[in-house]
Every structure is written in structure tokens, then in C-alpha cells.
Specification:
By secondary structure, the chain is α/β, with parallel strands linked by helices. The protein has helices spanning 2-16, 45-53, 109-112, 139-149, 163-172, 218-227, 261-269, 282-291, 301-311, 322-332, and strands at 29-32, 58-59, 63-65, 71-73, 157-160, 177-182, 233-236, 273-274, 295-298. It holds the Pfam family GDPD.
Length: 337
């Protein structure tokens, strides 16, 4: 099932832009998680506009496939009622209405784009800027907006927790860069965490036995496992599931990192990069920077950039032109009626 859903997306990726070595490799990879959901409504064109204004190097986003085969920029498998609102049925007596709560895979593009996904501010991100009536965009619509908003080169990286999808990517489009997302809870059969888990691989890591690779720690072995199928990067969770409840960053008792110096060093020895997620606290910023990671995925790209600027010594991508971004957003962002 995953392969069948992935193929239309890969076709879009392949036709969108040629993959080449990116001139932005010289910049510290500041990734706006879901467009920067701590600051703007996630996975919408306004959020990606804000990311460009913040000078990010990567607009991190998610895709789902609609019932009629369109790649829609959205993270969740379903339409979360805390993020989107119904505005009305696409046609009279539509049996799928209301659409909120339904799975993307069971809705058509017309049904999905009838939703208002820009009006609701999440309780967990009280500083989010809302843009009422904003519709979800398709992947080609996002590409069109970015092409309008900046002349800087844009390169696609496919990252996924499901390593089966990454392996399929390499088969279908071998030059597409891939990043192996992982957490200590995704590596082993039955889940678990860094300190307590069953033996044997989980389906999420394509049945690859992480512990069959050399290394004194799981952190080293998981890098070698990702390298075994050609992943260009590894994107581990910054906080291990084994951390004590409420231990959110390195300053707190009971906090355990899944990212270690051994992980970073092993990746660099193999020619891979390390770009952890989702770092949202400055104590964690400092911890990861000190380890020498190559980038960070964060909900607060503006704050992380300011932090890097204060530290000094980091090459950061240029900020986008506000006037141009505003004009392109006005042109491309679609609103519900």
C-alpha cells in the first residue's frame, strides 16, 4: 500500500525540478518544521512564506494523497478538528460531509480544499499567526508559490519515518536525496525506547536489524543502518522516549538525548549529515550545536536563526524579499469562499 501511494508523489517530485548538488550546502540547514508551526499555521502557503522571510534553508513539509490522486501538503492522516473547519459540502447531500475528522485518503481534492485550515490557533502554539480561510495547497501549488517568491535554488529531500518509502524512492528516483527520520521508539519490534525494548526490527525501519551493525551504542548503529540503503541524512528525534516525563531539555533531571557525539561522528565518517527534530528550546539548540549537527528542524525558525546570529560564525541563508513574497502569497494563496 505504501509503495502505491508513494509513486504518484515521486512522479510529481521528478517532474518538478532536476536534482543537483545544492549551492545551499554551505549554509547551516535551518529547517522550518511544517513551515514553522510555532509562528504560523502549519503546512500552508502563509507558513512557507514566513519561512522564506526568516531565511530558512529548508521548508519542511508533509504530503498526503487524496482519493483522486493529488499530493496535498498536510501532516496528519485525517483532518484534525483543532486545525481545520468545514465551510460547506462540495455538492448537495455529499455523504462524506462533514469532512473534518475524515482521512485525506478518503476525500477528493475538491473536498479537502473546501476546508478552512487557517483560522484555528493551536493551544500548544499560542503565538501562531492565523490567516483565516486559508485552503490547503497541493504540492505543485507549493512549488509554483516558491518559484514565484524566490530565485534561490530549491532542492527536494524526501524524509520519512517509514524507511520502506525511502528505499522505494531510491529505486524510482535514485538521485533524490533522502533523510531517515527515526526515534528510539521506531527502531524495534513492539516499540519501546532507548533503554527498554524488544529485540528485532520494526516495520518502520524496513525490517533492518539495527543491532546487526557495528557500534557500541544504538546511536552509532542506527546511522550505519540508514547508510546501508543509501540515506544521505539521518534525522533523529532530539529527545529520547526514555526521558523522564516533563524532562524537556538538557537542563532538566531525567532528560535523555537520542542524538549523541558518537552518532554525529559516525554519520560524518560515512559522509552523512545529521539534522535532528524537533528542537524548540534554546538549551536544546545549544546542546545540538555543540555536538556539531548539520542542521536542525524546528517549529521556531525565527528564534533559532536569531540564536545562531548571536553565537556568530555560522553561514546563514539570505532573507527573502518581503515585498516579493507578499505579492506571490497574494497571488497563490487560495481562500475558501
Amino acid at each position: 500500500m505504501y509503495a502505491a501511494a508513494l509513486l504518484p508523489l515521486l512522479a510529481i517530485l521528478a517532474s518538478a525540478t532536476p536534482v543537483k548538488r545544492w549551492s545551499y550546502e554551505k549554509y547551516y540547514d535551518l529547517q522550518a518544521h511544517r513551515g514553522g508551526r510555532g509562528e504560523t499555521i502549519e503546512n500552508t502557503l502563509p507558513s512557507f512564506a514566513q519561512g522564506l522571510l526568516n531565511g530558512v534553508t529548508t521548508l519542511e513539509l508533509d504530503c498526503g494523497i487524496t482519493k483522486d490522486g493529488h499530493a496535498v501538503v498536510w501532516h496528519d492522516e485525517n483532518i484534525d478538528p483543532t486545525k481545520c473547519k468545514d465551510t460547506g459540502a462540495v455538492f448537495d447531500n455529499d455523504p462524506m460531509f462533514p469532512y473534518v475528522g475524515k482521512y485525506i485518503a478518503n476525500l477528493t481534492l475538491a473536498q479537502v480544499q473546501s476546508l478552512d485550515c487557517g483560522s484555528l490557533r493551536l493551544d500548544g502554539f499560542p503565538l501562531q499567526e492565523i490567516v483565516p480561510k486559508t485552503r490547503l495547497a497541493t504540492l505543485p501549488e507549493l512549488f509554483d508559490f516558491v518559484k514565484c517568491a524566490t530565485d534561490e535554488p530549491v532542492l527536494i529531500t524526501h524524509q520519512s519515518f517509514d524507511w520502506r518509502a525511502l528505499i522505494k524512492s531510491k529505486e524510482v528516483y535514485p538521485e533524490l536525496r533522502t533523510s531517515a527520520l527515526c526515534a528510539d521508539s521506531t527502531l524495534y519490534k513492539g516499540g519501546g525506547n532507548l533503554t527498554s525494548h524488544q529485540r528485532g526490527p520494526s516495520g518502520m525501519v524496513a525490517g533492518i536489524d539495527v543491532d546487526s551493525f557495528p557500534g557500541d551504542t544504538v546511536c552509532e548503529r542506527v546511522v550505519r543502518a540508514a547508510h546501508s540503503f543509501g540515506a544521505d541524512y539521518i534525522s533523529p528525534t532530539e529527545t529520547a522516549a526514555a526521558s523522564a516525563a516533563g524532562a524537556l531539555d538538557p537542563s532538566m533531571d531525567g532528560w535523555i538525548s537520542f542524538v549523541s557525539k558518537e552518532m554525529v561522528d559516525t554519520a560524518h565518517e560515512l559522509g552523512m549529515g545529521v539534522k535532528p527534530w524537533t528542537a524548540n528550546r534554546k538549551n536544546t539548540f545549544d546542546y545540538l550545536i555543540d555536538l556539531g549537527v548539520d542542521g536542525v528542524i524546528t517549529d521556531f525558525p525565527h528564534e533559532f536563526r536569531r540564536h545562531l546570529e548571536h553565537l556568530g560564525g555560522y553561514d546563514l541563508a539570505p532573507l527573502a524579499d518581503p515585498s516579493r513574497v507578499a505579492k506571490c502569497l497574494a497571488k497563490h494563496n487560495q481562500l475558501t469562499s
